[in-house]
Amino acid sequence: MIEKTNFPPINEQMDLIKRGATEIIPEDELVKKLENSFKKNKPLNIKLGCDPTRPDLHLGHSVVLRKLAQFQSLGHQAILIIGDFTGMIGDPTGRNTTRPPLTLDQSRSNGQSYLEQASRILNREKTKIVYNSQWLGKMTFEDVIKLASKYTVARMLERDDFTKRMKASEPISLHELLYPLAQAMDSVAIESDVELGGTDQKFNLLVGRDIQREFGMEPQVILTMPLLVGTDGVEKMSKSYDNYIGISEPAKDIFGKTLSIPDSLIYTYYELATDVPKKELQDLEKFLETPGNNPRDAKRKLAKTFVRMYHSQEEAENAEKEFDRIFVDKGLPDVLEEFKFDGEVKEIGILDLILSVKFAPSKQEARRLVLQGGVTIDGERVDDISSVIKLDKEKILKVGKRKFIKIIS
After folding, report:
1. pLDDT of amino acid 91
2. Long-range CB contact pairs, 213-221, < 8 A, 24+
3. Which residues pair with 80 in a beta bridge?
4. Rounded distance, CA 313 to CA 317, Å?
5. Which of 16, 39, 100, 243 has its CA 20 to 30 A from that of 151?
6. Segment 237-283, tens digit of pLDDT
7. pLDDT at 401
8. Which long-range contacts (CB under 8 A, 24 or more apart) does 321-327 make?
9. Is the pLDDT assigned to residue 89 strictly greater than 90?
10. What SS3 class is residue 259?
């Protein structure tokens, strides 16, 4: 007996599905799939493949995960594919060089970490978890040749990243051409109805549609989501650019980093990275457009929202209070990390001190922080890169807006 699923009306489903989406290809096919799903009382299979090479998730990753969760809330089947097999290939999407391939064990280990963090967004009990090594690992060389015969080299090289690399005379290994086909086989294996991904995955998702047709299946609809711009307001959110807000970071870091985003990104972060209702988004848009309103108020609310989502309401309140103590009341954190040099060190240059406590990745970056006035010792600015700090007593070093440490003499 089929359990009755109470799907919302099609127009309500489409309203939520389209929220923040960049493209739905093709939208009319999605409407038909939803109508058939409604008539047959059968949930659609919604596919999302995860990249196991980066197990630490940030708000940029959450954008497409939240879209998957929205499909869940509408009564559809969320299928999270952990690419333990494709992780051994490496995917050059959005990069000029390939991602480093992993061993199967590394892929599975990272995939487990990904799953644990993704469960903060998805309903774990209603999410189907599969590893693509289950089917890709069983393919023979004959199977691979037959699969490769279903797609042309010319079409594969239409992919933007491959095109750019060819024009730049950069090498493209044959195994890279197999990645989109492997991802497409995932869609065949789970009979995907809709596949989600960032805009940088559009080509791979479209290949999935073509390969499903080759296997006599109804092609999946693809839905792409924008790449969330990081806290610097310039590049996409990435740990490589150090402009990310990790969903597993301490509450105070999530709060502080959110307050550092440009005002121009406030609405986008609300729309893509939270589940605030449509009415609240409309009110927010009006608030931000009204002269005299301070965007900081909306940003504070956003910061508390993120902390509440990934920690708790209590920690959201505490994070706000601690932030005010540090930056509004000019106080210090309740708990300060301590650092003590090995051996007897009586004095040290300010640049070496910053490097020693790992508040900068290089001496050049430490120099920049000092010259820009971002370094203080016991509340007094240090703006001379040749300054020598005497370690005759405990001192509080502050670098940037949020990095504090107590130097023990």
Report:
1. 55
2. 214/150, 215/188, 217/188, 217/191, 218/193, 219/29, 220/47, 220/187, 220/192, 220/193, 220/194, 220/195, 221/24, 221/25, 221/26, 221/27, 221/29, 221/30, 221/33, 221/193, 221/194, 221/195
3. 48, 129
4. 6
5. 100
6. 998 888 999 999 999 999 989 998 999 999 999 999 999 999 999 99
7. 79
8. 322/252, 323/252, 323/255, 323/256, 323/259, 326/402, 326/404, 327/401
9. no
10. helix
> Rounded to 10 degrees, what is the CA torsion of 249, 252, 253, 255?
110
Structure tokens, 263: 């005002």
Please write the tens of the pLDDT for every residue from 97-155: 445 667 777 777 777 888 888 999 999 999 999 999 999 999 999 999 999 999 999 99
Q: Which domains does the chain have, with CATH numbers?
A: 10-225 (3.40.50.620), 251-328 (1.10.240), 338-408 (3.10.290.10)
Pull the structure tokens for residue 21.
């989406």
| Strands annotated E in 199-283 | 221-225
3-state class (DSSP) for residue 408: strand
Asked if 188 and 143 touch (Cβ cutoff 8 Å), the reply is: no
- Give the helix, strand, coil percentages of the chain, each rounded to 5: 50, 15, 40
φ, ψ of residue 408 in degrees (nearest 5): -90, 130
Amino acid at 278: K
Mean pLDDT computed over every residue of the chain: 89
Beta strands in 37-117 (DSSP E): 45-50, 77-82
